[in-house]
Structures are given as C-alpha cells and as structure tokens.
Amino acid sequence: MNFLQLRGMNTARNRDLGLLILRILSIALVTHGLSKLTDIEGNAKFFEHQIIVSSAPKFWSVIIGLGQIVLPILLIIGLFTRWSGLLLTLMFVGIGIVETQLAGGFWNERGDGVSFEASLLYIAIGLTLFLTGPGRYSLDHALGVKEPARH
Measured between alpha carbons, how far is 120 from 126 in angstroms, rounded to an integer? Predict the structure, then answer.
C-alpha cells in the first residue's frame, strides 16, 4: 500500500487528472506558434541563420508555427494524443535542441542555464503523453482509443 492509498486517494483518478494537467500546460506553446504565423517574414529571417531550416525559412516558419498551435490544441483536448506528443517531441528535439546547440551554443546568453530549457519542458510533455496516452479525461478515451495495458 502506498502513501496515496493510505490517505484514501484514488491513484487511477489522480493519474488521469495529472495527465489532464500536463496536457493543459502545453497551452503556453500556442503563443509561440501565433507569433511565428503573424510575423512570417521576421521568423524567416531568423530561420535563415539556422542550420536545418535555412534552406526554406518561410516554409519552416509556417510549418513550425502551425505545429506550435495545432499540436498543443490536440493535446489539450486529448485527440490523437500519442501522435501529437511524438510530433511535439520530434519538433523540439529538432528545432529546440539541435538547432539551438549547433547554431547558438549550449549555454544561454546569461550563462546560468542551458539554451534549450523550454524545449526540454515541451519534450517532457510530448514524450510523457506519447508513452502514457491522454488518460480518461480526453476525446481519445471518449472515442475508445486503446491505451496500453496497466500492470
């Protein structure tokens, strides 16, 4: 018996509530996507100096902007959660870590942390939801999408 069971808390309900909270936290990413789509030219100029996306900066500005809007919305409502989590993870490994580390260096401008801390948080959200699924409070669950068996 664990601490939560001793205190009379339902661990399955807490797991599902925790996954819902994690999904909702991805809303912060939407503002980044909106800024990319409202200033495609400005973001394209930024992307011109990056390593991976420099060959088509306007295209990548739009794709990344859309990804930063659509993927969090899908995560929040719990629809296509595993795929959205995987795509979010891959997007931030690519643009958040590879691009940042290769183009801008490991440490942030002040030198008090890594330059891709926010990317690590979005990777944690995406990877966790890819591995666990959305939980009970989601459209995936309502639509009968199968989750992995719990042992």
Answer: 10
